[in-house]
Amino acid sequence: MRNAVNRACLVLDFAMQPISIRSARRALTLIVKGRATAQENTNYEVCKGIMLPSVIRLKEYRYIPARVQILSRKNILLRDRHVCQYCGKRFTASELTLDHIVPRSKGGRDSWDNLVACCQFCNRKKADKSLEECGMTLLHKPRPATIHTSRFVLKSMGEDDPLWRPYLFFDSEGSKEHQHSGN
User: Fold this and answer.
1) 111 neighbors 60 (Cβ within 8 angstroms)
2) What is the pLDDT of residues 127-182, one digit of tens each?
3) Are 65 and 19 in contact (CB under 8 A)?
4) Strand partners, 38
5) Relative to the CA of 117, which of 10, 35, 81, 83 has its CA 20 to 30 Å away?
6) Are the C-beta atoms of 122 and 136 separated by less than 8 Å?
7) Contact of 57 with 12, CB cutoff 8 Å
8) What's the pLDDT score for residue 4?
9) Has residue 139 been placed in a domain?
10) What sign has the CA pseudo-torsion 15, 16, 20, 24?
């Protein structure tokens, strides 16, 4: 039960727009308090007649201020889609490191535009050199996270849960809503 209630749950606002991801435990709390309703449930029964939610919808409109994404290893890897920004290969999070484009020893800081996902081979090759010194180039210029980055993160996390797909703008089947509204 402990692992089940810690699984991710997609939170939708009153207008059915995805706004965040919370634990299923927090989602259950919002449902019990009457602040949200379950849109999609898992097959896991928490207690008699209560299913563990996978997607919830807030009952009232809440102003959600634009959030500044926190600079973290996890967020850099998500922004770069787990792809080494030098060789272009995809890796798991444990196989990637963060690289300072301008090395710390040369005044480089921890910032959105100076950190990129990097495989261990490329990190060793670049070492403590500038891009010019080691003859390497970046696939993409790094940028700070934006609202679009946040939506991409939600969508990428939702790829593993088919119950989230209708709420995260997947268009693999040509969205039935769009097909009907066009006629």
Assistant:
1) no
2) 999 999 999 999 999 988 765 556 666 666 666 778 888 887 655 443 333 333 33
3) no
4) 56
5) 10
6) yes
7) yes
8) 76
9) no
10) positive
Looking only at the bridges linking them, the beta strands covering 8-12 and 50-58 are parallel
* Count of structural domains, the chain: 2
State the burial class of residue 105 (Cβ atoms within 10 Å of its Cβ: 0-12, 13-18, 19+): exposed
Contact 76, 114 (CB under 8 A): no
Pair type for strands 96-100 and 36-47 = unpaired
Residue 172 confidence (pLDDT): 47
Question: Which uninterrupted H or E stretch holds 36?
Answer: strand 36-47
Helix (H, G, I), strand (E, B) or coil at 97: strand
Please state whether the predicted TM-score (pTM) of the whole model is above 0.70. no
- Whether residue 28 is contained in a domain is answered as yes
Are 2 and 59 members of one domain?
yes
Helix (H) or strand (E) holding 158: helix 147-158
Q: Which domain holds residue 93?
A: 73-129
Measured between alpha carbons, how far is 53 from 27 in angstroms, rounded to an integer? 7
- 137 part of a folded domain: no
